[in-house]
Amino acid sequence: MTVDVTTAGFSTTVETLRLRTWQVGPGQPTLVTDQFSAEEFNLIVDDRADVHISSKDGRFYLGWFPLGRPGTDGEGWKLAVTGTAKVPGYQVSFDIETPADIVATTVARVLATSRPA
Length: 117
Fold this sequence. Notes:
With 117 residues, the chain is an alpha+beta fold. The chain contains 2 helices and 5 strands, in the order H-E-E-E-E-E-H. The chain has a 5-stranded antiparallel beta sheet with strand order 1-2-3-4-5, with no helix packed on it. The longest helix has 13 residues, at 100-112. The model has no long low-confidence stretch (mean pLDDT 90).
């Protein structure tokens, strides 16, 4: 058995191997927090300057912890949606350095899927 080494493995070009730039750093948290209105959400800033946002019905929660959520290893954002009697809820965490654009996109998608009961 012979192997044609000209077609083995994968092929690429120098152009595809060039370095990319990636968005890094926490960015501007107001991209996330500005998505919420006082009519539909409660906002609390605690004594540590952590921000807590919850829906009026209490089923949605978003916390922003600029210095890290107490008891965690660098958790900067916590999003949680409470489930129902038949369907479990879910939660998503992002670390302190996750770009706010990424968190904002996630939050926007969660909010877009909600509707009045």
